[in-house]
Design goal:
The complex is a heterodimer of chains A (about 190) and B (about 450).
Chain A: H1 3-14, H2 34-44, E1 48-52, H3 55-65, E2 71-74, E3 84-85, E4 98-105, E5 108-109, E6 115-118, H4 119-122, H5 127-130, E7 133-139, E8 143-144, H6 147-154, E9 161-165, E10 170-171, E11 179-180, E12 187-193
Parallel strand pairs in A: 1-12, 2-3, 2-4, 4-7, 5-8, 7-12
Antiparallel strand pairs in A: 6-9, 10-11
Chain B: H1 7-15, H2 18-40, H3 45-61, H4 63-76, E1 80-84, H5 87-100, E2 105-108, H6 112-116, H7 119-125, E3 129-132, H8 135-142, H9 159-170, H10 179-196, E4 199-202, E5 206-208, E6 214-218, H11 222-229, E7 232-238, E8 242-243, H12 248-261, E9 268-272, E10 280-286, H13 290-294, H14 310-314, H15 316-321, H16 332-342, H17 359-363, H18 370-383, H19 389-402, H20 405-410, H21 416-421, H22 447-456
Parallel strand pairs in B: 1-10, 2-3, 2-4, 4-7, 5-8, 7-10
Antiparallel strand pairs in B: 5-6, 6-9
Helix pairs in contact in B: 1-22, 2-12, 3-12, 9-10, 16-18, 18-19
Classes of the chains: A alpha/beta (about 190), B alpha/beta (about 450).
């Protein structure tokens, strides 16, 4: 018998009688201002959040706060005068020198500050992880309260890869001292647009 | 060899350096307090734990079908699926995947399963070099030590010691001990590793039967750096990581990081479903004692564990004895209930490395009755004649009383009454947990008492 078959047989033999799945539709948070909540949560975990009037304001902020002499990539055509629109067909290693990447998220979560990104909005799976700095554009109307609502939105989306990103990469492995910028971005900025 | 000594002996060694013990104790207690703050800020926290536990009960009761469904979806998504009965078979599979591609270097993100399988050693013997990319695991690897904590692998090390290791292995300046600078050095070094490795292996936090996707959680971003840069991606998971539906991730992701380190979510929660064009994705389902554990009604709930580590952070014995004294990859209370299932003789001492205070069960996000299982393992171990002689004497009396189901049941829901009225129930200034919020009032055997009973009298 193959390991597969013997494992499955043992599992079938040993598993206890079937129990029901719980109803998880009852997880609600009290009425709240999700935008305010999002801002507080995200800055609380070391993220930077700016309310931007429009795309123009975002461009100005990028010019003032990032090293535009270095490589900046984006998947947003509207940002093409501050960023190179990234190609999806190149090797992931080619993004090693990216200083800043700017992408759009269509779902953000107030309770933990995370944004949901699928490979389609990332341009390339590696981009939000390999860049020295990450910026994400979020329309305020896309913010939900909790992860339950987030998964209700994601529902049966058929992505090949998707991820929640909830701040700059971090570690506290050395004596519990918090260090931002472990292997991923050193900073994460969220631009909120009304 | 450390591996041949029992927990009490190793704890004694750890306890020789009092300052370090106090520091270790304090660091973990601080994390426990962060967990409390985070839990208290989350509405319906207890209901969430209840739901998580019930979902996992359902998983355990329907694992066979979920595994088939998961396998089927993986295949549809273009992922190659393997089944491994034990560590040896798991390691062989990884070796075959790599050698078929002529790959002799791999980068790995945190995976307790592959630690347990001693994958790195297995591959090293066959000429394949593996680098652990989680910073804490990397530090443990260059020091030739196993992780001492499942979430914080080098929590027992001082920054000066880490500086010394970096000096030796990475050529940093002698005496460098600033955590930010050390982290930057590792970041630069490991970037090169990520850029040049053709293969990357990750662990799995949750595997969704409904969609065939698996979720990997990190704060550092190392799993993603490895996975998205490599051409051969491998994931190793224990059978119990299955959850039924995608929406259940909402429950678990809300609980995991809050329980682990008091953070609202891990920075990265990555959902892998299909390989990217030109990439291969392999997933290995590992049994390694799990199907056997399913057959033990008293202990099967330990398969619900989501490896948050909070039972370790809160455990007075763990905090005061250090993870390495458990001589098992998974240490602390959860390690002490998982290890005897695999090798009762070798791990006979671990269920005794506890005061049975119940703090672990109180924080566990999936509500595993950890301290009750510890107590039940003691009975099994004593009955099977595996307990070390010096402990058998003192433990036998207790086990005898406690092994009577009538006494156990009439003595209150969890048998705490007996423990509370046992002669060793003494509280003193060393008792590190009477200040806890989520603790039951009893029992109150102090660590000092536990220590002198289990260690000093040896
Ligand atoms: S047993 Fe519970 S508290 Fe301990 S690591 Fe597992 S899930 Fe966390």
């Amino acid at each position: 018998m193959s390991s597969r078959d013997s494992i499955l047989a043992a599992v079938l033999k040993n598993q206890p009688p079937l129990t029901d799945l719980p109803d998880i539709s009852g997880f609600k948070v009290p009425e709240e201002d999700v935008v305010e909540k999002y801002k507080n949560t995200f800055s609380g975990i070391g993220g930077l959040v700016y309310s931007a009037k429009n795309i123009e304001a975002i461009k100005n902020h990028i010019r003032e706060n990032f090293d535009t002499g270095k490589r900046i990539v984006s998947t947003l055509p509207a940002l093409s005068d501050v960023a190179e629109i990234c190609s999806t067909s190149v090797e992931p290693q080619s993004f090693e020198d990216v200083e800043l990447s700017i992408i759009e998220s269509r779902l953000a979560v107030a309770e933990n500050g995370a944004v949901w990104l699928t490979e389609e909005v990332m341009g390339h799976r590696i981009i939000p992880y390999i860049s020295q700095h990450l910026a994400v554009v979020v329309y305020e109307s896309k913010i939900v309260s909790t992860m339950h609502e987030a998964y209700a939105k994601i529902a049966d989306e058929a992505y090949g890869f998707g991820g929640f990103i909830g701040g700059p990469s971090k570690t506290a492995d050395i004596e519990q001292a918090l260090v931002l910028g472990a292997h991923g971005p050193l900073s994460m900025t969220v631009y909120l647009i009304k | 060899m450390k591996g041949t000594q029992d927990h009490a002996t190793l704890a004694e060694v750890f306890n020789r350096d009092e300052d370090r013990v106090d520091w270790h104790d304090g660091a973990l207690w601080w994390i426990r307090q962060k967990r409390d703050r985070s839990a208290n800020l989350t509405p319906q926290w207890e209901e969430l734990r209840e739901a998580a536990s019930a979902i996992k009960s359902n998983v355990i009761s329907n694992l066979h079908d979920y595994l088939l469904q998961f396998e089927d979806n993986l295949k549809k998504n273009g992922v190659k699926v393997y089944w491994a009965a034990d560590a040896e078979e798991h390691n062989q599979i990884v070796y075959k995947i790599l050698s078929d591609k002529n790959i002799n270097q791999m980068v790995k993100s945190k995976s307790m399963l592959t630690e347990e399988c001693h994958l790195n050693e297995y591959l090293a013997d066959r000429g394949i070099d593996v680098i652990n990319s989680d910073l804490g695991e990397y530090i443990q690897q260059i020091d030739n030590e196993p992780p001492s904590h499942i979430v914080l692998p080098c929590i027992h090390k001082k920054k000066e010691e880490i500086g010394e290791l970096f000096h030796e292995h990475l050529g940093t300046e002698k005496g460098l001990s600033d955590p930010t600078l050390l982290t930057r050095v590792a970041r630069n070094h490991l970037r090169n590793v990520f850029m040049t490795r053709r293969a990357a292996l990750t662990g799995v936090n949750f595997a969704v039967a409904e969609t065939g996707e698996y979720v990997v959680c990190t704060n550092e971003g190392n799993a993603d750096m490895g996975a998205h840069l490599c051409e051969v991606q491998i994931a190793s998971m224990g059978l119990e990581k299955i959850i039924p539906e995608r929406k259940h991730l909402g429950v678990f992701l809300r609980l995991l990081a809050r329980s682990a380190i008091g953070q609202p979510i891990t920075i990265y929660s990555s959902h892998f479903r299909k390989p990217r064009p030109g990439q291969e994705m392999h997933l290995i389902l590992v049994d390694k004692g799990r199907s056997e554990l399913l057959a033990r009604p008293d202990f099967r709930d330990s398969l619900k564990c989501i490896k948050c580590g909070s039972c370790m952070n809160t455990c007075p014995v763990y905090r005061k004895s250090g993870g390495l004294s458990y001589h098992n990859t998974i240490s602390g209370p959860i390690g002490a209930i998982l290890a005897p299932n695999l090798d009762m003789k070798k791990h006979a001492d671990l269920p005794f490395a506890s005061t049975l205070c119940g703090s672990c069960s109180n924080v566990c996000p999936v509500k595993i009755p950890i301290h009750e299982q510890l107590y039940k393992w003691r009975q099994v171990i004593v009955k099977e004649g595996y307990s070390a002689s010096r402990k058998t004497f003192s433990m036998k009396a207790m086990a005898l009383t406690l092994s009577s189901p009538e006494i156990y049941n009439t003595a209150g829901k969890t048998g705490r009454w007996i423990l509370n009225h046992a002669p060793f129930a003494i509280n003193n200034k060393f008792n590190p947990w009477y200040k806890q919020r989520d603790m039951p009032d009893s029992p109150e055997q102090s660590f000092g008492e536990w220590y002198s009973k289990n260690v000093k009298k040896s």
